[in-house]
Amino acid sequence: MQPLSGIKVLELGNFVSAPYCGKLFAGYGAEVIKIEPPDGDISRTHGPFKNNQPDPETSALFMYLNTGKRSVTLDLQTVTDHNNLIELIKKSDVLIENYRPNDAKALGIDYETLKVINPKLVVISITAYGQKGPYANYYSNNLIAFAMSGQMFITGTEEGGPLKNGGYQADYQGGLNAFSAGMLAVLATERDGVGQHVDISVQHCMGPILEAGIPFYSYMGLWAPERRGNLMSSIMGVYPCIDGQIGIHVMARNWPPFARAVGHEEWIQDERYSTAEARMENSDELMAEIIQWSTNITKKEAHQAGGENRAPITYIHDMADLLESPQLKERGFLREIEHPVAGKATYPGPPWWMGPDNWTDNPAPLLGANTKEILEGLVR
Q: Domains of the chain (ranges plus CATH)?
C-alpha cells in the first residue's frame, strides 16, 4: 500500500503551485480529483507542445504537473456545479487552492465557509503573500515572487544587476512547502478530529532560502557579498569548455587534488597559488590559466579528471545529460509514462525515495475525463 492511500484530495488550483502540491499527493498514493473550469487549467495553454502544435492535451507543463490525477470540469458560476463541488468537499480529506483570498471567498471556498461544510477538512491555501496583510490580495507571478522575496537581490552580477532564476522555481517552492505543511495538518487532524487551514505564502517560502542574508543584514546593517555571477572567484564558479560548461568550487584542502586534475601539479608549490591568500591576490591570472585548460577539454573529460583526483569539478547537466545520467537511472528516478494523446515520454519521478512501489506513474488526465463518472457517484 502506498503511503497516502485512502486520502481523498480536491485540487482547485491553476498553473504551478497548487498543481505541484497535488502532484505530490497523487504520486504517493492519494486520490486526487482536479477541478478544472470548462476551458481547463491555464497551464494547458503553455508550451512546449508535442510537435510544436498547441493542444490543451499535450502541454508538457500540464502533463508533468498533473500526473496521477483525475479531471472533473465544473463551472463554479452555475448553481448546479457549485452544488456538485460542495458534495465533493463533503467527501474529501484535503482541499488545495491557490486563489487570492478575496477570490476564494467570492467562490465560497474560503476556510471559514469550508469548515462549516466539512469540519475535518484540511484546506491548503497557496498565495503570493498569505491570507492576511497589506499585500494579501495583490496579483503576482513568478518574477514578482523572486523580486519580493529578495532572491533576485542575491543573483546576477554587479554590472548587470539582479537576475531571475530559471523556470517557475518560486511556484514550485510554494507547492513543495504546501505539501509538507499539508501532511502535518493531515496528521494533526487525525489526532484531534478537527480540520486545519494551511496558509502558504510563496514570499515566506522563498525567504528562508536566502541563507544568512536577513540575519546578517539585521545585525550588521549591510549586505557585504557582491553579486558575482557565474565566476565568483578564480576557484569558485562556472567555466566554459569545448561542449558546454563546468563548475568548480575549490576550498583550501582541495587545492592539491585540483591542481593535479587540471594537469598543473606545479601550482601546488607555485608561490603565486600555493596559499589561499596568494590565490586571491593572483585571482585574475589564475582564472586565465584555468580558462586555458577548460576550453581545451570536454565537460565529461573534466568531470572524469575531477573524479580520478578527488577534485571538486563537475559539469553542467543539460536535459540530455539528465536523461542519460547513470545515477538517476540506477535510482529509478526517470519514469516512462504513456499519455493517450501525447504518447510516451520520460518524466522525473519521486522527489524522495520511499521504496519501489510507493510512487504512481499514471499520466495526466484529459480535460474532464472523469467528470461523468465522479459526479454520477455523488450521493446527495
A: 8-209+330-376 (3.40.50.10540), 231-318 (3.30.1540.10)
Identify whether the C-beta of residue 285 lies closer than 8 Å to the C-beta of residue 272.
Answer: yes
Q: 244-271, pLDDT tens digit by residue?
A: 999 999 999 999 999 999 999 999 999 9
Q: Which residues contact 311 (CB under 8 A, 6 or more apart)?
A: 250, 254, 257, 258, 260, 261, 262, 305
Full DSSP string of 173-222 = HHHHHHHHHHHHHHHHHHHHS---EEEEEHHHHHGGGGTTHHHHHHHHSS
Return the DSSP state at 132. S
pTM for this entry: 0.94
User: Distance between alpha carbon 312 and the CA centroid of its chain, in Å?
Assistant: 26
Whole-angstrom Cα distance, residue 116 to residue 114?
5
Amino acid (1-letter code) at residue 227: R
Q: How far apart are CA 41 and CA 37, in angstroms?
A: 7
Query: Residue 132 to residues 101, 109, 127, 199: CA-CA distances in angstroms?
Result: 8, 16, 10, 9
**By the 8 A CB rule, do 258 and 250 touch?**
yes
Peptide bond into 134 cis (omega under 30): no
Angstrom distance (rounded) from CA 3 to CA 357: 10
